[in-house]
Specification:
The protein is an alpha/beta fold. The protein has helices at residues 38-42, 98-112, 130-137, 149-161, 176-186, 211-225, 244-255; strands spanning 4-10, 13-18, 21-26, 46-49, 55-58, 65-67, 70-77, 80-85, 120-124, 141-146, 169-173, 192-195, 200-202, 208-210, 232-237, 259-268, 276-286. Bound molecules: S-adenosylmethionine (SAM).
Length: 295
């Protein structure tokens, strides 16, 4: 990850480098003491604070271009360009722990690509498009679903930044569950379904999404859309209740023993400090697939 580095974490905060910017943000899981000297933390360009009101503090006169309240800049991750922006929630359009899953996805596509047709990837809760970009780079076709217009526009911007606009991608602005129901009726099929649901979200028409209430429907509908032979579900989540055993029980209750399941903690690795736990992921695959993971 040439352009991203987790420099340190601790005291409920994390210190990260995104290209030319060093950023401090709140991090509830970092309950330990930081490893690096406070002086290094003080050199950060930007701090996001949630104390009284969510706000970004620009510590230096950085070269961030300003678009209203937001600054934006580009980084390069594994050959993929991303446009980053400061949002009111402290997000910047990139969850670095997903790079690990994008590498897994790339390997699946490379191993499974069919000579007769392109592998078909459904990217749900697709946000600014990281997963879609990796899928396109590996010559898969992509259906990109998100309920927020600004997120879809951000993804389109990233697609353009990488000159992928003529590749095989369709954008769907809709609630994930509504879209899945329509796809089941149409008899659509996908080889790989990627889901990274938030704990709480809203559909395009304000539908309320709560992961605990909706995850079973999401997975049951996804199961109906899987193509016959080669199919995978890549699931990740950052909700604190979703532990390894919770995810195992969830998948077993829906898929019985019809496939194999890999589950592990999503980790943000740091060369200079502690690795940071960042939720869990699971990869379910039909048994007949020959998927060897040498990452
Ligand atoms: C945590 S982000 C996903 C991160 C993304 N997978 C990535 O790798 O960068 C959550 C996304 O889900 C979208 N979302 C929230 N509720 C939704 C719903 N009911 N249907 C579809 N998308 C939804 C949000 O607009 C947001 O873009």
């Amino acid at each position: 990850m040439k352009n991203y580095e987790l420099l340190d974490s601790g005291n409920l905060r994390k210190l990260e480098k995104f290209g030319e910017r060093v950023i401090v943000r709140p991090c509830m899981q970092a309950i330990w003491k930081p490893k690096l000297d406070e002086k290094i933390w003080e050199k950060a360009d930007l701090i996001f604070e949630r104390d009284s009101k969510n706000k970004w503090i620009h510590k230096k006169k950085t070269s961030l271009k300003k678009t209203g309240k937001e600054g934006f800049w580009n980084i390069d991750i594994e050959g993929i360009k991303l446009s980053l922006k400061l949002t009111d929630f402290g997000h910047i359009g990139f969850f670095p722990e997903h790079i690990f899953l994008c590498k897994k996805l790339s390997k699946i596509i490379q191993d499974q690509n069919l000579p007769e047709r392109k592998l078909n990837v459904l990217n749900l809760f697709a946000y600014s498009g990281l997963v879609s970009l990796f899928a396109l780079k590996n010559k898969a076709s992509v259906c990109h679903v998100d309920s927020s217009k600004p997120s879809i526009l951000w993804a389109k911007e990233n697609i353009k930044l990488n000159n992928f606009q003529n590749m095989n991608i369709r954008y769907i602005l809709d609630d994930a569950i509504k879209f899945l129901k329509r796809e089941v009726k149409r008899g659509s099929k996908y080889d790989v379904i990627v889901l990274d649901p938030p704990s709480f979200g809203r559909g395009a028409k304000g539908e309320i999404f709560k992961i605990e209430k909706d995850i079973v429907s999401l997975l049951e509908l996804s199961k109906k859309l899987l193509s016959k032979k080669k199919s995978f579900i890549i699931f990740s989540c950052h909700s604190p209740n979703f532990t390894k055993i919770t995810i195992k029980n969830l998948f077993e209750s829906i898929f019985d023993n019809s496939g194999s399941l890999e589950i592990d903690e999503l980790l943000l690795k740091s060369e200079k400090s502690y690795n940071l736990p960042s939720g869990y992921f699971s990869i379910w695959q039909k048994n007949e697939n020959k998927y060897s993971d040498n990452l």
